Amino acid sequence: MAVGVFDSGLGGLTVFDAVARRLPQVPFVYLGDNANAPYGVRDADDIYQLTTRAVERLWDEGCDLVILACNTASAAALRRMQERWLPKDKRVLGVFVPLIESLTERHWGDNTPPREVSVKHVALFATPATVASRAFQRELAFRAIGVDVEAQPCGGLVDAIEDGDEILAEALTRSHVEALLRRMPRPDAAILGCTHYPLMEKAFRAALGPEVKVYSQPDLVAAALEDYLKRHPEFMGSGTEGRFLTTGEPKNVSAHATQFLRRGITFEAA
User: How far is Cα 256 from Cα 270, in angstroms, rounded to an integer?
Assistant: First the structure.
């Protein structure tokens, strides 16, 4: 009954932490493609190939349902995977939709036509690949009209977070927020469109100011997963053991992950 959680690196651990707290009875298998991280500077075909390979590895672990806890993979690869590649007995879900449903005040499965919502000006902070994909804007357009989105590609921020360089990460956060605010001075809401960014949520909030509502993904994804499993228990896979897997060097990744979550995490070679 294991569920897979995939990310290009360590950012998906923020989602893993949230889903594990919400569903303690479920074993989760986490796979980080640390050897090929970051994905945010890669092209769409490269991201697609790396993501499908990782999902297949999680299927080998008995995970019939895999969460792409990576906005870049969700943006650049998920739709193509679902339309052309995914077997009928497997499911791969992304992290954009729960966030957009919250932003537009919709429940899962609400497929009514797009309508006006209270939020009119949205600041999106994401990796360069996610911004280039325009996946957030596409998914938002299915649900809402009249929403202006200003996207800021946050180059370098994932690397600084993965390296544990908090001073650089905070400086980059302030710089990216200032760059966006020059183009959209008064956003109603801000989307942290990378699963690394919740670790910098305090810095984002400080730079944006108290009047901007900040949407962060982990808890929203956890609630959506709980609801999905209640409705689709058949996609609980055959796996029974939770594990942390990496394509990188396990000892180094474990050390970074322990610093990242501030508790002991031990990775194995994928």
Answer: 17
